[in-house]
Every structure is written in C-alpha cells, then in structure tokens.
Design a protein that fits this description.
electron transfer activity; heme binding; Cyt_c-like_dom_sf; Sulfide dehydrogenase; Cytochrome Bc1 Complex, Chain D, domain 2
C-alpha cells in the first residue's frame, strides 16, 4: 500500500502541475520573461496615422478577331461576360461553338435573336476552331 502511495502522490502532483501549465497555454499565456511565470507578449502597435489605399487592378479587354459577325458577337456576348471568355477558350470544334451559343440562350437566358445567333455561331466557327484559330 505504501509503495502505491509513493507512486500515486508524485503522479498526482505531476498531473496537477501539467494541468495548470496547460490551462495557461489555453488561455493565451505564451512566452516567458521570468523562469517562474508564463506571460503573453504584447502585440505590436500599428501607427494611427497610416494611410492605405488600393489602386484599380490593371485590366484589358481582349480584341476579337476581325471578321463578319465580330460586332454582333461583341455586342450580344458582352452583355453577360467579357470577350476574354471567348479568347481564353482553347480552340473549340465548330459543333461545340454552336452548342455554347445555344446554351447561353436556352440555359442562361441570353436574349439573342435567332438570326444574330446564327451570325455569332458562324463567326466563332470561322475564327476560334482548331483548324482556323487566328487570334
């Protein structure tokens, strides 16, 4: 019994000390200036007279390739997105451009007259397919 108590008491003391130290760490008391205490360091003070501003992000609108249907493509497609969405695409096969324009009309509600949609599709197929990507 005595042997158990001699092991149990130091173990309980160790647990109590460990719990106290852990509680200080949990409460944000980090760092130490003295060997017998744990203190949190003071955060750096920011200057009160600081002046910060953000400039506009430089941006450019990519030009579409010259050709018949360019104006219609630019006018109707840019009501929802920039021309960058056309120029950043990998060269798409002609049927895919047809599907893309129809998706914009049917799924996303782009109000493009049928005759104009045909012009836009023809323009995209003429300039942005793998066979004839010019720009």
């Amino acid at each position: 019994m005595r042997k158990r108590l001699s092991v149990l008491i130091p173990g309980l003391i160790l647990i109590a000390v460990g719990t106290a130290v852990f509680a200080q760490f949990q409460s944000g008391s980090y760092g130490s200036t003295q060997t017998n205490s744990i203190e949190q360091t003071v955060p750096p003070q920011l200057a009160q007279d600081g002046n910060f501003s953000v400039a506009p992000f430089p941006s450019f609108v990519p030009e579409l390739a010259e050709g018949e249907g360019r104006a219609e493509t630019q006018d109707f497609c840019t009501t929802c997105h920039s021309t960058r969405y056309i120029t950043m695409q990998p060269p798409l096969p002609a049927p895919t451009w047809d599907a893309e324009v129809n998706k914009m009309i049917k799924t996303f509600g782009a109000s493009i007259p049928e005759a104009t949609a045909k012009e836009i599709i023809s323009y995209l197929q003429e300039h942005y397919t793998p066979e004839n990507r010019k720009h």
